Structures
1.
Amino acid sequence: MNLKPMIYEYRVSAPRKDFYNITSEVREAVAKSGVQDGIAVVYCPHTTAGITINENADSNVVRDLLLGLDKAFPDRPEFRHEEGNSTAHLKASAIGSSATVIVNKGKLVLGTWQGIFFCEFDPPRERTFFVKVVG
Ligand code: ZN
């Protein structure tokens, strides 16, 4: 058992509303940690962005997810939040602010088609996310 859980900080430059593939950064954090068996928590400390795991093979899946989120959470005139980005807050809450991935034999346990994404809903932004690896 690793008694010193490690945390790694990364930046994402997010010029547009999109899902940014951060799988390689998470793999790097796991490798740096030296943890062989445990979990990696990927966490986004922002209120208009999120973290999700979804298909990494066909980029149209991300396109369709963005389209679906726009349809599910349209901007509404009755919103009161003065910043004017309540639709981005809604999408961020629907997607969630973290993902947990199992680490087995030093590797992320991801399906063949899965990737880990930072989801930007209120661009352009310079963002941060954290990876905490616990063995
Ligand atoms: Zn806001």
2.
Amino acid sequence: MGLGGGIAAYKTLELIRRLREAGASIIPVATEAALQFVTGVTLQALSGTPLRNALFAPLEADGMDHIRLAREADLVIVAPATADLLARMAQGQADDLLTALLLARRGPVLVAPAMNPAMWEHPATRRNVTTLQEDGIHFIGPEPGAMACGESGTGRMAEPATIQESARRILTPKILAGRRLLITAGPTREELDPVRFISNHSSGKMGWELTLAALRAGAQVELIHGPVTLPPPMGALLHPVTSACQMLDATLNAWLGTANGPRCDAAILTAAVADYRPEQRQHDKIKKTDATSAPHLTLTQNPDILAMLSAWSGVRPRDGRPRVIVGFAAETGDALARGHAKRIRKGCDLLAINDVTAPGCGFGTDTNGVTLIGRDGREEVWPLQSKERVAERLIAAVAELVSHPRSL
Ligand code: C5P
């Protein structure tokens, strides 16, 4: 973790804490200017590793810290990267430990710039950024907003969570490179009148984790989602919808594509689509008439998006590659028997069943236990684990299916 001398260095402390929590080990390397903003003691305490900041440190036995650090790290992050640091990197200068190790570096480098907007927009910085991008350096941010100097514009360092996600994407093997996925997530809302609706407890978390896992694996993702409160996953193409009928339109559009052929290689439908909607949505708010009677609701069935998509699956006409459809089923009680019947009825390639009454499974939780059922009726049980891990495994299974259709 290389730190340049900018006020955003305080956010790098949070980044170090988050990365360590996620299991990374961090070696902090600070420029002299960085130590005007954060102390070596703080960096050492948070990273659990002594600070490196001298090119010629007497304590280093071989004096080759810059070479060793450049080689050993899986990823070098520079946060904050000041205008001066970017200029020195672009020039290939090596006049302190951080720039020397960056010059000796062969593996990936992620840079999170932070500076005054005028400095960011200056032609000299533009040139340096272009040079570094051409050299293969990854950039994240800067973002627009208020600056510490009182001005506003583009120059704020990306948030620690954003830099962390960016680091994960760089480090994840690209098993879905060049593939496009369609994912549905969250609940749908079926309106009764302008103020009321029928919906369910779906949080959208499973679909969100799948979207993130697919993006990390190099896929492009179209995320069609009902009303949720989750932050948009960076880099996904979002299609927010409200009702099941709107979700059907958006999903078929993405699946069928254009005259040039279908856009998506695989679809994972995690949305908890409402099975029924009011036959008629009232134009005005339904009034309470008297104290004793209640209105009767007449419901009608919503389209089954998964079943319709499966009916339209088959190969991509453009390149003859098979397309893969995965469904999710929230069940209670006799989950497995129902799951087999449902997979056949819906015609999908894989069905992930979860018993929403089991502890730690289902709506709003961060964990899930699923049983996968394939076309050949084979079952695979994945015990309770984080939704993030379930997503990672399911994305690996989908990557396998789109490349080797016989494993269906
Ligand atoms: O029938 P059930 O709701 O249990 O099926 C669950 C699976 O079917 C999920 O993948 C869900 O996204 C999908 N589904 C759908 N359209 C519906 C109902 C469910 O696509 N109307």
3.
Amino acid sequence: MSDHLQNRRILLIVGGGIAAYKCLELIRRLRERGASVRVVLTAAGAEFVTKLSLGTLSGDKVYTDLFDLTDTAAIGHIELSRDADLLVVAPATADLMAKMAAGLAGDLVTTLLLATDKKVLIAPAMNVRMWTHRATQRNLEQLMADGIHIVGPNEGEMACNEFGYGRMAEPAEILAAIEAHFSELEFEGEQPLKGVHALITSGPTHEPIDPVRYLANRSSGKQGHAIATALARMGADVTLVSGPTNLPDPAGVTLKRVETAREMLVACEAALPADVAICAAAVADWRVDVDATQKIKKEPGASAPSLTLVENPDILATLSKLKTKRPTLVIGFAAETEKVIEHAVAKRLRKGCDWIVANDVSPETGVMGGELNTVHLITAEGQEDWPLLPKQAVAERLARRILAYFDSKKAKA
Ligand code: C5P
């Protein structure tokens, strides 16, 4: 199975910000995945990370200023960007973004960025007020209009003790954005899954207690949405049935928004026939057995109401056991904390699906709430162990595995 990062050449421009230390981890991860990394360090960046650390981890010379390159024996700045498959700026400071937006070229980094014909991905990092400043937002709009890819920034605690948007994306997120760029290239102009209808469930469900309260779970929907995006990019006709999430709508998919498990099942049934169904949603196993049309009141002196739960439909099992219109390939997810394989193998048989993607969510893996996932693909033929990957990369791999399945079916027909 191809890895989008294998043999890719990344030119990493490290700007001056406290987040620069995260680049060390990014370099390590990129190299683990078979990419080569060449680093260009701005003068401000050198205040935060050393040339020695960057050079040791990248295994290459670290470039620092324009005058390094005047020696005819040395690589010229044009070659530096020409030799790369992708330029990544991390951290992209407010100053660097402003220079890029204005097209300045007064030093090595800005010259490289102006002289390149390659895609550029930036990971902004700055104080929240600098990020929300009209000037930075104006520059951001300009950069997006110029075709620059952006990852982050995230919301959170900042080094300056303030809270808000401005934290640089985590290395795993930057890695996923780099990978997404290369996977887009792989299928550019090609639609290998054209004609395949994929039905995907994603996110949590909300089960009402009364008109204002509900039971829910912590699913973000990241994995399901990433699968929808990956399949759509390969040309599949995608119906995404999603519970409530904070995620942007994936491009090129038909999105059906639902709240409850019962609504999710109805939306899935309405979307049939489908060639492949992927149940990535964290469907609530139970709902509250109430039909409260008014908010339950807290009456003085009255005891707390008790809630009776009833079982929700199991969407994966229902789709897997359909007598007519059963999708050719039905895939479920299983989150396990122990005996991962054993439990997932049993779940595959119990639910009647074809494949199970088993996540190891034991606390030591850091998968829960994190960006990475360790999965095992369980099929009738056996098990495949996948490496620790960003959720987006898991989605890409699964999409390619689904493509291989339909290709081999076509070949046999
Ligand atoms: O039984 P468990 O919740 O561990 O199974 C997980 C798999 O079953 C996931 O694929 C999930 O989307 C699906 N599921 C479902 N409907 C339910 C419960 C789980 O589709 N009510």
